[in-house]
Every structure is written in C-alpha cells, then in structure tokens.
Specification:
Layout lengths: L3 E5 L6 H11 L4 E3 L1 H13 L7 H9 L14 H11 L2 H16 L3 E5 L2 H5 L5 E6 L2 H14 L6 H17 L12 E4 L5 H17 L1
Parallel strand pairs: 1-3, 1-4, 2-3, 4-5
Helix pairs in contact: 1-9, 2-3, 2-4, 3-5, 4-8, 7-8
Length: 209
C-alpha cells in the first residue's frame, strides 16, 4: 500500500513548508492542493466574474490544466479569498477530487490542504492537523507578503485571515476541521526547523510500524 500523508490546517500555520520538507525527507511526491482552488479562482478573476458563481466555478475547475498551477499570481489577498470562495462550492470540490486522488495513487504522496484527512484521503496512514495562533499566522503571512514586495499591514492581514478561517470552517462542503484520528501539531512557538523535527518524531514511528 502506498504511503499517503495528509496535512491539513488553516492558512499560514506552516503546513505547506512542513509538507514540502516531509515529502523531500521521505522521497514522496508533494501536492499543495490549495493551488488547485487558487488556480480555479484565478481563472474566474481573469474573466472578472464572481468566484461564488457555482456554474462558472465548476466549469473552471473541470477546465483546469497542470500549467495553471505554475502561474505566478496564485498568491496574495485576492487569490486567497477567491480560492476560499470557490472551495465552498460542492461541485468544484467534486471536480477536483479525482485530480488529488490520482496524484497519490501510484507512488504515494504528501498532500496539504484543508480536507485531505477528512475527505480526499480519509484512509491516509498518517494525518497531521497543523495550526497556530491567529496573531502568529498573521505575522508570518505579513512577512511572506513583504518578501514578495506586497504592501500590507498586520491588522489588515489578521482581518483577512480571520475571514478566511470563518469561511473555511463554516462552509457546508468539506469544512476545515481535523480528522478524528489526526495528530495535532501547534506551531505557534515553533520555527520551521522545530516544526519539521517534531513532525518527523510523530511520523517516524507510524511509518516504522
């Protein structure tokens, strides 16, 4: 049976960085599933249509191509909110479900997102739910934005994250929540190296077992 590691959690908790490092350490393919929703949202923003339009959003999801995931404009507040809005549409999630499952089917994978352990791979051998305090997540996201040359202030970023959290947790389709058998990893007081070390300590015994 191929090894699948599901990593879920809210925005800016560090799950993407952690997932990439775990994938490299364990020589597994890596997929940031959030890019799928960002790419769908960006397709709709390109056409100046409402990302909440279920019909157009589903069509955009079914038209998605691998190259769409490499666009340089999939990060930032506009892409963040568009991704959250299309992710709340059940038909979009259904359209992208096979994409995610096919990615890991042959060789296994580390996947990060918001519903990997609950919906996409409920049978995953290892599930981590990565979280952190809102204030710390806002500080990290602000640093990311500034590193990319995007002007932003901490209060604005914290407000946007709070709205994103509410939207992700409150949606009827695959709401953000830990799987019952997920391991909780709080990275509030951990840097990237410490989070990776702690995750490896949690994951290693399950792989060996």
């Amino acid at each position: 049976m191929t090894l699948v590691i599901a990593i879920d959690g809210p925005a800016a908790a560090g799950k993407g960085t952690l997932a990439r490092r775990l994938a490299m350490a364990l020589t597994l393919p890596y997929l940031d599933t959030g890019l799928l929703y960002r790419a769908v949202g960006r397709r709709l923003l390109d056409r100046a249509v409402d990302p909440r339009d279920a019909v157009l959003a589903e069509a955009a999801a079914r038209a998605l191509r691998p190259d769409d995931l490499h666009r340089p404009d999939l990060r930032g507040p506009a892409a963040d909110m568009a991704a959250s809005e299309v992710a709340a549409i059940p038909a979009v999630r259904a359209a992208l479900l096979d994409w995610q499952r096919d990615f890991a089917r042959e060789a296994g994978a580390v996947l990060d997102g918001r519903d990997i352990g609950t919906v996409v791979f409920p049978e995953a051998q290892i599930k981590l739910f990565v979280t952190a305090a809102l204030e710390e997540r806002a500080r990290r996201r602000l640093a990311e934005l500034h590193a990319r040359g995007v002007a932003a202030v901490l209060e604005q970023v914290e407000t946007e994250l709070r709205l994103r959290d509410a939207q992700d947790r409150g949606r009827s389709a695959a709401p953000l929540m830990p799987a019952p058998d997920a391991i909780l990893l709080d990275t509030t007081r951990l840097d990237a190296d410490a989070a990776f070390a702690q995750a490896m300590a949690l994951v290693a015994p399950r792989i060996a077992g």
